[in-house]
Amino acid sequence: MNFLWGGMIVVGILYGAMNGTMQEVADAALSSAKEAVTLCITMAGVMSLWTGLMKIAEESGIVAGMTRAIAPFIRFMFPRIPSDHPANQQISMNIIANVLGLGWAATPAGLKAMEELEKLEEERRRDAAGKTEADIIHNGWEKKSADMAQSSVVQSGVVQGSTAHKKNGRCRWERGGMPPGVASNEMCTFLILNISSLQLIPVNIIAYRAQYGSVNPTAIVGPGILATAVSTAVAVVFCKMMDKKRRV
Known about the structure:
By secondary structure, the chain is an all-alpha fold. It contains ten helices and two strands. The chain has helices spanning 2-18, 22-60, 62-69, 71-77, 86-99, 103-129, 133-138, 185-195, 203-211, 221-247; strands at residues 165-167, 170-172. A two-stranded antiparallel sheet has the order 1-2. The protein is globular, with a radius of gyration of 25 Å. 20% of the residues are buried.
């Protein structure tokens, strides 16, 4: 991005120099800088207002109530996360903040959710590392051939090398969790939901429209709800299809 923006600035300056419009370029740069500061101040006020309201909602128990309300959806989308795991709380907070259009408040919860999901994967790898080969056979872990039975489960508690079951040319990691450095199924699902999130109140867009003189800044609410509802529905269907495909 640094190269992209730097290249755009250089091209603009060169174009202005070749066409004798350097004064216009300088005026536009100063005007845009002033406008950027004004926009930042406006957005800081909006952010403070809605983040404060989110904190009030959290302290008053409203967020907890909403978290309980969406618990069935969380369980549906993340069936492998234990019901008492901290990741559920952070995922719920992120989804609620996104639905309310509070992208700033959603970011910290999203980062914490990813941290908790990574801890969950580490727990799965440790649990798998403690299993003996007899336990693996008993619990249904597949082996491709008799000579694979002589291979052991090593390193990080995941199926390594020849013990990985292959289907359609791809390696399927069984119950021991994903190898280190690879996003888990829950991480991918959460990221997709976060990107496509339903928004009832697109606070950012309303603030931008108000800043730039829109006659009706809130006119975007209806189309925004429709667009994000469709994107969220597609995301849910896609995640469940990929999850089912992965388990086949």
